[in-house]
């Protein structure tokens, strides 16, 4: 039988060599001049554990094909070269000539549009092979090879070809095999973003949820029943991963051809043909990372696979909690840095280049994208972090969700709020989607959600982290800070962004000294259960060797009393023109936010001036509270997470920030660490605060407290 092999690389070269050795008339055709020249000069050599042999057969470049091609044409070019291969065959096929696609991906429509559907058959080829040099192909194993008619008929020509092609068997379910291969191919693309072997990427437990989700996403799109092959059973994906690990460990081909294209050959992959036609977020994220590597923006490394795993958690865990505004595929970042490859979410009130600054408001979310990153986001990228998602928030960080946008839910108890305004950031960290997220804090908007969700929430010293590129609420009180899975994670982000972080561990010269804000614990507005949990936590710190001393928190209450006048006057200065100005659009605000801002309009500016003067009087006394102690300690919130965030002009809303607000007014650094659970399983937080500028000291003590309470 006469064969023309169009694309004589890994698959085409292997099949063509076996056919030639069996005595068939084979013409090799390839676009690589060096490969063609080597075959012409020395023959095509098959090497590897399966067999070792060389065949001598003619080889040509596409321009050297005869004007009329008869017999069987085996198309084995890369998927993205399908259109070019079809054009090579246009008008060239002799009557009775047959075309067989041996490609990965769903390329039948491209080929049949030129050669005719009646001439075309398709193959499923799963053995591993690689071109290891001009004229040399390594065959790594023997695996499933199926050939079928596109309409599923078992024809005479199908049986004849199956009897000739090496390892081939005829099938009436070729599309089922091809769709199963689409799913397996998506797994190979997923693993190829790293430098792990196929077996290692499939076996690593941290990537198992990702691999299963990618396969499910592809298989859900199949219009036919996907067929099992070589350990891959679409009906048993968990078992399939185990079996595929064993199959690939037994193959001489350790890495996929996709990886070799990216990391060795530095050439385009088949991503657009294989993953491009698919829908679904995960394959989209994989495709974007592959393209970024092709563009030279990234290299194949495990950090890419860790990012894909974060995307999987974002979809599976973050979106049901209404914590996600948008995913940011293949984010640009520095290739090195202290946060290299760390996935970090950003509250959608902070500028991220290419995305609108959404502010928790549907009008703004549909606005123009930011032209550049806010400085804090640029610093994250410069530190090597993957800024991969925008987190949801309460509208304009003002204390209430917009009625058209769902409020972020609490991962610990989804029937409760994640808190505000940085609730989306807290929920993503608490759900385990990412180790850290940026938030903002004007009266407790980082620390309150942290306490509700059981994570760490850090409000640094005022001005330490830039608020440029952040929608203000009250510029005097606004802070950018971090929500994190641990104190160490929060410290790592702060250090990367500011150069300030916890000092290396050392044996303390004396016990940690905690100033307990006694009147906060005695405050009648504090839920008795939270008071008891906080006292128990303090007892545990005492047992751990820390020294406790009571402090009179009257000055903190005085600072808290200053917050409302400062916030309301400044909030009206920020948003007033949007409500009453010449281009006013009051209807774009949610009703609760609009009510708050109209209330703010009634506050005379002189009240802010008086509050700022009072703040200046109280700051020295606030500093003296820390004389003789390392940090102040007290409850983080007066109650555990409610069902919904109470508006700040309600009784519950007015007291939500009584313990957090003083440190916004004073500008001192403050952090919340988890300290227990209520009988209903809701997290409770302990708040620590240090002197203005002593963020590093605060983090050192917080780390010790975290260990003692673990």
Automatic annotation (TrEMBL):
Identify the domain of life: Bacteria
Q: Where is the Amidase domain?
A: 334-699
The region called Disordered is annotated at 402-421
> What PROSITE patterns does its record include?
AMIDASES
Name this polypeptide is given: 2-dehydropantoate 2-reductase
Biased composition, class Basic and acidic residues, residue ranges: 404-416
Please state every residue range assigned to the domain named Ketopantoate reductase N-terminal.
4-151
């Amino acid at each position: 039988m006469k064969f023309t092999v169009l694309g004589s690389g890994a698959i085409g070269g292997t099949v063509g060599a076996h056919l030639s050795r069996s005595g068939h008339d084979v013409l090799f055709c390839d676009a690589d001049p060096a490969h063609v020249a080597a075959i012409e000069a020395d023959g095509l050599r098959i090497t590897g554990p399966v067999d070792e042999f060389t065949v001598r057969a003619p080889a040509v470049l596409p321009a050297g094909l005869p004007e009329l091609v008869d017999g069987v044409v085996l198309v084995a070019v890369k998927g993205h070269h399908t259109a070019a291969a079809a054009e090579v065959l246009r008008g060239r096929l002799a009557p009775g000539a047959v075309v067989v696609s041996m490609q990965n991906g769903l390329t039948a429509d491209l080929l049949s549009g030129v050669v005719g559907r009646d001439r075309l058959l398709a193959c499923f080829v799963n053995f591993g092979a690689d071109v290891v040099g001009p004229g040399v192909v390594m065959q790594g194993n023997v695996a499933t090879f199926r050939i079928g008619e596109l309409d599923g008929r078992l024809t005479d020509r199908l049986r004849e070809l199956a009897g000739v092609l090496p390892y081939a068997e005829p099938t009436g379910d070729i599309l089922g095999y091809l769709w199963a291969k689409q799913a397996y191919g998506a797994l190979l693309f997923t693993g190829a973003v790293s430098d792990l072997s196929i077996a290692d990427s499939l076996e690593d437990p941290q990537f198992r949820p990702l691999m299963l989700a990618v396969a499910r996403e592809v298989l859900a799109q199949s219009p036919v029943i996907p067929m099992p092959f070589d350990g891959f059973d679409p009906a048993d994906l968990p078992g399939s991963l185990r079996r595929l690990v064993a199959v690939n460990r037994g193959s001489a081909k350790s890495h996929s051809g996709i990886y070799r294209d990216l990391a060795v050959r530095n050439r385009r992959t088949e991503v657009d043909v294989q993953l491009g036609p698919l829908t679904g977020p995960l394959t989209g994220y994989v495709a974007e990372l592959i393209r970024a590597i092709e563009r030279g923006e990234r290299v194949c490394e495990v950090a890419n696979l860790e990012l894909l795993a974060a995307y999987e958690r974002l979809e599976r865990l973050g979106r049901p909690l209404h914590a996600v505004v948008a995913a940011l595929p293949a984010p640009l970042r520095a290739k090195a840095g202290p946060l290299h490859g760390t996935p970090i979410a950003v509250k959608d009130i902070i500028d991220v280049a290419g995305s609108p600054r959404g502010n928790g408001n549907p009008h703004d979310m549909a606005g123009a994208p930011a032209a550049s990153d806010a400085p804090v986001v640029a610093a994250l990228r410069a530190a090597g972090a993957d800024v991969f998602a925008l987190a949801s928030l309460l509208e304009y960080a003002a204390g209430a969700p917009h009625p058209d946008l769902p409020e972020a839910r609490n991962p610990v108890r989804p029937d409760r709020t994640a808190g505000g305004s940085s609730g989306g950031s807290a929920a993503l960290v608490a759900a385990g989607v990412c180790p850290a997220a940026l938030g903002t804090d004007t009266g407790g908007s980082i620390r309150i959600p942290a306490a509700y969700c059981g994570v760490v929430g850090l409000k640094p010293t005022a001005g330490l982290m830039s608020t440029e590129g952040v929608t203000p609420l009250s510029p005097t009180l606004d802070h950018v800070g971090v929500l994190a899975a641990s104190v160490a994670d929060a410290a790592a982000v702060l250090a990367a962004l500011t150069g300030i972080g916890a000092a290396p561990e050392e044996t303390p010269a004396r016990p940690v000294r905690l100033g307990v804000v006694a009147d906060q614990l005695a405050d009648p507005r504090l839920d008795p259960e939270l008071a008891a949990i906080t006292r128990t936590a303090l007892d545990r710190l005492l047992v751990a060797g820390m020294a406790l001393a009571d402090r009179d928190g009257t000055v903190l209450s005085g600072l808290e009393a200053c917050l409302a006048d400062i916030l309301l006057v400044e909030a009206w200065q920020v948003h007033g023109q949007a409500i009453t100005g010449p281009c006013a659009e009051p209807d774009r605000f949610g009703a609760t936010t609009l009510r708050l801002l109209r209330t703010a309009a009634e506050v005379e500016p002189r009240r802010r001036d008086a509050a700022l003067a009072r703040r200046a009087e109280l700051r020295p006394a606030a500093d003296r509270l820390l004389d003789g102690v390392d940090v102040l300690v007290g409850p983080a919130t007066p109650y555990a997470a409610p069902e919904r965030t109470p508006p700040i002009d309600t009784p519950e809303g007015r007291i939500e920030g009584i313990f957090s607000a003083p440190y916004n007014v004073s500008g001192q650094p403050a952090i919340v660490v988890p300290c227990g659970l209520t009988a209903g399983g809701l997290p409770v937080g302990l708040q620590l605060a240090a002197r203005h500028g002593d963020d590093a000291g605060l983090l050192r003590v917080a780390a010790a407290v975290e260990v003692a309470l673990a």
